[in-house]
């Protein structure tokens, strides 16, 4: 069984016990979050596609840690103007989550909702 969820403007294919790195969520390590924006659920041969979301479906996950991505350096240089060279670095803030279970059709445990 797997599901396709949307968080942080991106879509992820998730299954139980998967660990994935997503854009930062406002939750501490060890906290439980729920993703309500489930776009599709596949259970064996049964495929449920939402329009645009699957009603009553959710994905429970546990926050493993808050991290930062690799440093990305951007350089801008204009020709013949050495004094106009700039260099910037950026590290994206990320959250690592472990998928606990995929809830289909109305099963709703007590957990916080992650809206990203």
TrEMBL record:
GO terms for cellular component: cytoplasm; ribonucleoprotein complex; ribosome. Residues 71-92 are annotated as: Disordered. GO terms for biological process: translation. Residues 74-92 have a biased composition (Basic residues). It comes from the Bacteria. InterPro entries: bL21-like, bL21-like_sf, Ribosomal_bL21. Coiled coil: none annotated. Keywords: Ribonucleoprotein, Ribosomal protein, RNA-binding, rRNA-binding. The keyword tRNA-binding does not apply. GO terms for molecular function: rRNA binding; structural constituent of ribosome. This protein binds to 23S rRNA in the presence of protein L20. PANTHER family: 50S RIBOSOMAL PROTEIN L21, LARGE RIBOSOMAL SUBUNIT PROTEIN BL21M. HAMAP family: Ribosomal_bL21. Part of the 50S ribosomal subunit. Contacts protein L20. Belongs to the bacterial ribosomal protein bL21 family. This is Large ribosomal subunit protein bL21.
């Amino acid at each position: 069984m797997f599901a396709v969820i949307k968080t942080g403007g991106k879509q992820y294919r998730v299954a139980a016990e998967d660990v994935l790195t997503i854009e930062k969520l406002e939750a501490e390590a060890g906290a439980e979050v729920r993703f309500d924006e489930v776009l599709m659920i596949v259970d064996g041969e049964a495929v449920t596609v939402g329009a645009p979301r699957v009603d009553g479906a959710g994905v429970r996950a546990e926050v493993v840690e808050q991290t930062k991505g690799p440093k990305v350096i951007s350089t801008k240089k204009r020709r013949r103007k050495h004094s106009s060279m700039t260099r910037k670095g950026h590290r994206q803030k990320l959250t690592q989550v472990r998928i606990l279970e995929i809830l289909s059709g109305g099963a709703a445990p007590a957990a916080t909702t992650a809206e990203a």
